[in-house]
Amino acid sequence: MALRTIGSRRDTLKAGAIGAVALALAPRLAHADAAAVEAEIKKLYGDKKGAEGKVKLDVPQIAENGLVVPINIEIESPMTDKDFVKSVHVWADGNPSPGVLSYTFTPEAGKASASARMRLATTQNIICIAEMSDGKLFTAKSQVKVTIGGCGG
Amino acid sequence: MSTKPTPRVRVPANAKKDEIIEIKTLISHEMESGQRKGGDGKVIPRKIIHTFTAAFNGKMFFEAKWAPAISANPYQSFFFKASQSGEFAFTWKDDDGSTYEHKAKLTVA
């Protein structure tokens, strides 16, 4: 009888341990934060800092449905062979992972502008960095208030 | 949603030379983020379209890389400067290795 009790306690402990490992293996469930976005930017551009301006980041101030949040980016540029926008990266600092999207532009596009729709788990900041053909960086940031989250809950 | 993703593209068939035209694309796809849990408590594996490219006469002019934060049935709009007549090729690349393609002709007057 006594042995049995020990056995079942062991099982409980074992189950608990497995549970803890499972939790540790699910870092995706943790949320990104401003530091995670900073780290991503650093990985791409090192210590280079972006200036404000040129980038028009158009997101709603309040999104009723976090599952479908429109995002429009427009960057001022003549889009000629010598002076064009090379790329744009967008991050969100309150989603399970910070990445949202990246665009590669070419002079053939004629205009550095694009629209998409994203999921936002909660109220958070959208951070956008554009890299010009001469290597200069321009940033824009905007907060979106989310009423209903877009990550399954 | 297990049906084959169907691309839908809105692109003008005709344009004036050097006119900047807007292209709108949409593809039906669940964009499973890999963060949701199913009824059995297990995480549903990630399956998204991670790359979209737009090419004209074989030359890529716009590319989008998508993260799981992109909504289901991803919409993408962008621009193209009509320089000559030719053919667009739009490609979506899925996590499972499949690609979906759509082609459209453009006549420049």
Give a description of the structure.
The longest helix of chain A has 23 residues, at 2-24. By secondary structure, chain A is of the alpha+beta class. The model of chain A is unreliable at 21-28 (pLDDT under 50). Helix content of chain A is 23%, strand content 39%. Chain A is built from two helices and nine strands; from the N terminus they run ααβββββββββ. In chain A, the strands form two sheets. In chain A, strands 1, 3, 5, 6, 8 and 9 form a six-stranded mixed beta sheet that branches. In chain A, strands 2-4-7 form a three-stranded antiparallel beta sheet, with no helix packed on it. The relative contact order of chain A is 0.22. Chain A folds into two domains: 1-30; 31-148, Sandwich (Immunoglobulin-like), CATH 2.60.40.2470. Chain B starts with 6 loop residues before the first strand and ends with a strand. Chain B has strands at residues 7-10, 14-15, 20-27, 49-56, 59-66, 75-81, 86-94, 99-108. Chain B is elongated. In chain B, the strands form two sheets. Chain B has a five-stranded mixed beta sheet, with no helix packed on it. In chain B, strand 7 (86-94) and strand 8 (99-108) form a beta hairpin. With 109 residues, chain B is mainly β. The interface between A and B is medium-sized, with 35 and 31 residues. Strand 7 of chain A pairs antiparallel with strand 6 (75-81) of chain B, so a sheet runs across the interface.
Provide a short characterization of the protein structure:
The complex is a heterodimer of chains A (153) and B (109). With 153 residues, chain A is α+β, with helices and mostly antiparallel strands. Chain A is built from two helices and nine strands, in the order ααβββββββββ.
Give the helix proportion of chain B (percent range): under 10%
Largest interface: A-B, 35 and 31 residues
CATH topology of the largest domain in chain A: Immunoglobulin-like
SSE order of chain A? HHEEEEEEEEE
Spatially, the strands of the biggest sheet of chain B line up as 2-8-7-4-5
Query: What top-tier CATH class of the largest domain in chain A fits best?
Result: Mainly Beta
How many angstroms separate the termini of chain A?
Answer: 45 Å
CATH superfamily membership of chain B: Immunoglobulins
Distance between the termini of chain B: 42 Å
CATH architecture label of chain B:
Sandwich
